[in-house]
Design a protein that fits this description.
166 residues, mainly beta, 4-stranded antiparallel beta sheet, globular, 8-stranded antiparallel beta sheet, Umud Fragment, subunit A
Length: 166
């Protein structure tokens, strides 16, 4: 029975869902530092990440580290950031981003050049806390193959418990 439980736990963690503790404020106010989040893996067996999805993915710069950000654009789309108005544009259209709580989006010195066309098979990700997030503005688009799941639920602490809006 113990072996069955261990194998079941391993299978669920490997193929169905994973729990993560959020170490930074890059997704605030959507997800707070210290929140515990479930990321499910099943959705991306059937489709690729899409605009608005909160994704977990392998860090392209530090092996073994998992990051969590919001998908802003997908392969073939062009991202532009206007430092004057603080808006993000995808294919020339400014995004309506209520999850940023009105914080402006600026380019990051030493980051990518704009306009930036997301390569096929990759996604552009940004933290909701645009003034405190190292994201695609810094490291560019990330491969869809590096995505580990769709963040769906904050389960701890209980006062932050709830489904994540995508």
């Amino acid at each position: 029975m113990l072996a069955f439980v261990l194998v079941l736990a391993w299978a669920l963690r490997t193929y169905v869902f994973q729990a993560y503790e959020i170490p930074s404020g890059s997704m605030e106010e959507t997800i707070m530092t210290g929140d515990m989040v479930f990321s499910e893996k099943v959705t991306y067996y059937f489709r690729e990440p899409d605009y608005g999805d909160i994704v977990t993915f392998h860090d392209t710069e530090i092996p073994g580290r998992i990051l969590i950000k919001r998908c802003i654009a997908t392969g073939g789309q062009t991202v532009d950031i206007n430092d004057e108005d603080g808006l993000v544009y995808v294919d020339g259209v400014p995004l309506d981003e209520p999850y940023t709580d009105g914080k402006p989006s600026y380019t990051i010195p030493g980051g990518v050049s704009y306009p930036y066309t997301v390569p096929e098979g990759e996604i552009w990700v940004m933290g909701d806390n645009r003034t405190n997030s190292q994201d695609s503005r810094k490291f560019g688009a990330v491969p869809v193959s590096s995505v580990t799941g769709l963040a769906v639920l904050v389960y701890w602490p209980l006062d932050n418990f709830g489904l994540l809006e995508h």
